[in-house]
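Format notes (please read before filing issues)

Several people have asked whether sequences and structure tokens are stored in separate files. They are not. Every record keeps both together, in the order shown below: the sequence lines, then the token lines. Line labels are part of the format and must not be stripped during preprocessing.
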Amino acid sequence: MSSTDDVSSENFIVIKVENVSKSHDGGQSFAVKDISFVVPQGHTLAIVGSSGSGKSTILKTINRLVEPTSGLVFVGGENVANIDPVILRRRIGYVFQEIGLFPHMNVEENICIVPKLLGWNAEKRRARGEELMALVGLPPETFRYRLPSELSGGQQQRVGVARALAVDPDYLLMDEPFGAVDALTRETLQEEVKRIQKQINKTIVFVTHDIFEALAIGDSIGVMHEGRLEQIGTPSELLQKPKTEFVHNLFARPARQLAQYGSVLQE
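Then the structure lines:
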């Protein structure tokens, strides 16, 4: 899928970024420049790029943590500029690397903080907390009353994912969510995200600097470089048909390793 491809009606576009730019100095320089892409319903778009490439900036324009200098962002067919930011963010789950769990709250309380703010009663919150703990692989009978300090890094990230899903948002934004955990835990969490996405069919935009993580997570991948979107396409398109020298160089090593792995399996 390219940034300009039409999407069939069965894959209804629910996130659309249209010619978005962001400058912090009145147009002298740009964090992102003229970015356009669409994300169909139930689809995971991974955005990959190095630090400073603009990938987190473009992610944050979707829930208005960053206001674009120019361009438009649509979520569910609505221009986000016309939606109250608080209301918008309650419709969009957000997971980030720092997690930000409240240290004095147990797992259930952390997961259900937004439902509590919305006035859900204790019984409904408890049921939702149990449902989400089970979904992310944290059995309620074991983890409900644990504090963040009693959890591993991977378990804390699972709580972060559960919290983002607490009010059943249609959309999930994930900003380098697994960057602070070890490689084995990271791989496990990647598999969990894919399992959860398949089970509950959320539309996900997933930012990472890790090419292999993007290949593992994304139905499509957008490549950011110096504030511009170099290419967007399926993993196979980026591996086999890179459109720019930067994309070719970025995916050359993964393509080589995947080819070597495939030849080993055939021996």
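For reference, the curators noted about this record: The two ends are 34 Å apart (CA to CA). The CA atoms of residues 258 and 264 lie 10 Å apart.
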